[in-house]
Amino acid sequence: MEVYVLRLGHRVSRDKRISTHVALTARAFGAKGIYFSVYDENVFSSVRGVVDRWGGDFLIESVEWRKFLREFDGLKVHLTMYGIPLTEKLDVIRKSERVLVVVGSEKVPPEVYEMCDMNISIGNQPHSEVAALAVFLDRLLDKTFRMKFDDAKIEVIPCEKGKKVVEKP
């Protein structure tokens, strides 16, 4: 299964850190890439730097979101606290070959709720889009601890106490 993320509504002056975390969470939890509705060089270069050091093939680009959402060839899932609980639709989502996960920032335009195939909630209380994306990808893909990148320059070696990091030449 290929999973991509569409980040809507990035505000350059305010959302740099949280949008970077959305992208890094997408990568760390197994998504193939992320599309932004707004281009922000700081966010893009930061994420590309992580991919360069930590490895993998992770796409990051900006798109005109309405056109992209209309033309995406796969299941379109909007994460919103107003949606159907993930547990009720997880088996249906898992049957898809390609999934686009839509996460917002500021108020999501009402048309997104109609353009997506599913509106899915992780919980019905206010929470972070980073948390929602992490839970969604972990439950859907369940591969966070099995991912290895041959081209990684840095690798964490799990240990019970302390930190062990290997830097490869």
Automatic annotation (TrEMBL):
Q: What is its main location?
A: cytoplasm
Q: Which GO terms describe its cellular component?
A: cytoplasm
Keywords linked to the UniProt accession: Cytoplasm, Methyltransferase, S-adenosyl-L-methionine, Transferase, tRNA processing
Q: Which superkingdom, per the lineage?
A: Archaea
The Enzyme Commission number assigned here is 2.1.1.206
Tell me where it resides: Cytoplasm
Sites where the protein binds S-adenosyl-L-methionine: L79, G104, S105, E106, K107, V108, I122, G123, N124, Q125, P126, H127, S128, E129
One molecular function GO term is: tRNA (cytidine(56)-2'-O)-methyltransferase activity
Q: Which InterPro entries match?
A: Alpha/beta_knot_MTases (IPR029028), tRNA_m1G_MTases_N (IPR029026), tRNA_mtfrase_aTrm56 (IPR002845)
Q: Which reaction does it catalyse?
A: cytidine(56) in tRNA + S-adenosyl-L-methionine = 2'-O-methylcytidine(56) in tRNA + S-adenosyl-L-homocysteine + H(+)
Q: Which GO terms describe its biological process?
A: tRNA nucleoside ribose methylation
The family note in this entry says:
Belongs to the aTrm56 family.
The record ties this protein, via NCBIfam families, to: PRK03958.1
Question: What biological function has been recorded for the protein in this entry?
Answer: Specifically catalyzes the AdoMet-dependent 2'-O-ribose methylation of cytidine at position 56 in tRNAs.
Q: Could you describe the subunit structure of this protein?
A: Homodimer.
Report what the protein is called.
tRNA (cytidine(56)-2'-O)-methyltransferase
Origin organism is: Archaeoglobus sulfaticallidus PM70-1
Q: What is the lineage of its organism?
A: Archaea, Methanobacteriati, Methanobacteriota, Archaeoglobi, Archaeoglobales
